[in-house]
Write a structure and sequence with these properties.
Layout: E1 5-9, H1 14-27, E2 30-37, H2 46-55, E3 60-65, H3 67-81, H4 92-111, E4 115-117, H5 126-137, E5 142-144, H6 146-150, H7 154-163, E6 177-181, E7 184-188, E8 218-225, E9 228-232, E10 235-236, H8 239-251, E11 257-263, E12 269-275, H9 277-293, H10 296-314, H11 321-333, E13 339-346, E14 349-356, H12 364-367, H13 379-387, H14 389-402, H15 405-408
Parallel strand pairs: 1-2, 1-4, 2-3, 4-5
Antiparallel strand pairs: 6-7, 7-12, 8-9, 8-13, 9-10, 11-12, 13-14
Helix pairs in contact: 1-7, 3-4, 4-5, 8-9, 10-11
Length: about 425
């Protein structure tokens, strides 16, 4: 690798702070840091982060406000897709990584840098997301992964920081590793590495303990247009403001706490604590609206697409043709997902209280048993005859070979004596 500059994704935390000095020592390269603001609720002072980067040795420290792009181009498509990794995780960190990867590549191209760098370890998912993204967008760039290369333990890192007078917030007494953006907060390490141990309250920051949440429920009305949330209680707002408001509302009711033992892409299981108040609330509301506006086949096929979409995001394959193909179906499926959902917030749960849409497939006159009933009951007999035709034919012609008790006993209940 030639002597040049490297663009480092810089958070101001332990790993990336010592990475500045380590890259200089190891590769003899100048460091340009890039800090991306994606709306961490416990917001950092970005001027302080920038100054810290310069203080620890960066030749240039850049900051990008990516909150709007993050929500519009990453969060909202994932919400429309109904993407929850393993049915639980709203993918907050996973959605942020491809955006950071693109900004790293854009900065490297603009600055004429030979390489980019990140602070991920060798057994996490983020290294994959960053590197596959960079390789896809600009395969000519070299990638440096200091935390993976140096093999330091957490204590080694703290000692290295102390040796070079690099200020860090993490201490041996507070070992949590935390990542935040608008869509969620993740917390791992320390006592959380034992899945038998209930997460202590200090692992949470965005949500109140559901047991201590208000004793009265709160109702909120969320308006959607083509699967995108556009208003809260009739007040239209942009994506960033909408997510921030729902994080506050839902978090105050203890909504969004997730304790998940997940399958990492690299082949290990990891216990993660997530807080995602707005994500959990909006996912439930969006799903409720889809049940009203999507036909059965579309709804069930989309459930399969949702799982594959979540896996795609989690696995770092954002910039792929596979994503484009999945996204095309998702966007098509959202054309009629317009309406309002009234959600009840209470003691850690977000539940549907009401849903309406001009494109609703629900018809009261077809569903009701009252005098307004417009369903043709007589048509049901013909439907049943046709629906059961193959079953009756099978029973008539194959009964002798299908009556083996060793097989039928598994599905056929025994006779029950009658009094």
């Amino acid at each position: 690798m030639k002597n040049d500059t490297v663009v480092l994704a810089y958070s101001g935390g332990l790993d990336t702070s010592i990475a500045v000095k380590w890259i200089q020592e190891t590769y003899d390269m100048d460091i340009i840091t890039l800090t991306v603001d994606m709306g961490a609720k416990e917001g950092r002072d970005l001027d302080e982060v920038r100054q810290k980067a310069l203080d620890v040795g960066a030749v240039k420290a850049l900051v990008a406000d990516a909150r709007e792009v993050f929500v519009d181009h990453f969060v909202w498509p994932a919400l429309q897709a109904g993407a929850l990794y393993e049915g639980v995780y709203p993918l907050a960190t996973a959605l942020a990584r491809p955006l950071i990867a693109k900004l790293l590549v854009d900065t490297a191209n603009k600055e004429g840098s030979a390489a980019v760098a990140h602070g991920c370890t060798g057994k996490g998912n983020d290294q994959v997301r960053f590197e596959v993204g960079v390789q896809t967008l600009n395969p000519s760039l070299d990638i440096i992964a200091p935390a993976r290369e140096w093999g330091m333990t957490r204590d080694d890192e703290l000692a290295y920081a102390d040796k070079f007078d690099i200020p860090v917030e993490v201490t041996s007494e507070s070992p949590y590793s935390i990542d935040e953006n608008l869509w969620g907060r993740s917390c791992e390490c320390g006592i959380l590495e034992d899945p038998w141990v209930e997460p202590p309250e200090d692992a949470y920051s965005w949500t109140v303990n559901p047991a201590e949440a208000p004793d009265e429920p709160q109702y909120v009305e969320i308006s959607f247009e083509k699967g995108l949330p556009v208003a809260i209680d009739g007040e239209e707002m942009d994506g960033v403001a909408l997510v921030e408001k729902l994080n506050e509302l839902a978090g105050a009711h203890g909504i969004g706490r997730l304790d998940h033992v997940e399958n990492r892409l690299v082949g290990i299981k990891s216990r993660e604590i997530y807080e995602a108040p707005a994500a959990v609330l909006l996912t439930e509301a969006h799903r409720a609206l889809e049940t009203l506006t999507l036909g059965r086949d579309t709804q069930r096929f989309k459930e399969m697409v949702s799982q594959r979409y979540a896996d795609m995001v989690y696995d770092g394959l954002w910039y792929t043709a596979f994503h484009q193909n999945l996204a095309a179906y998702v966007q098509s499926s959202q054309r009629a997902v317009t309406g309002k959902v009234r959600m009840k917030l209470y003691k850690g749960k977000a539940t549907k209280a009401g849903v309406q849409s001009d494109y609703s497939l629900y018809s009261k006159t077809l569903a009701t048993y009252d005098e307004e009933d417009a369903f043709d009951h007589q048509a049901a007999e013909g439907f049943i005859n046709l629906h059961g035709l193959s079953a009756r034919t099978e029973a008539r012609h194959q009964r002798s070979v299908l009556s083996d008790e060793s097989v039928t006993a598994r599905i056929m209940p025994p006779e029950i004596e009658m009094d």
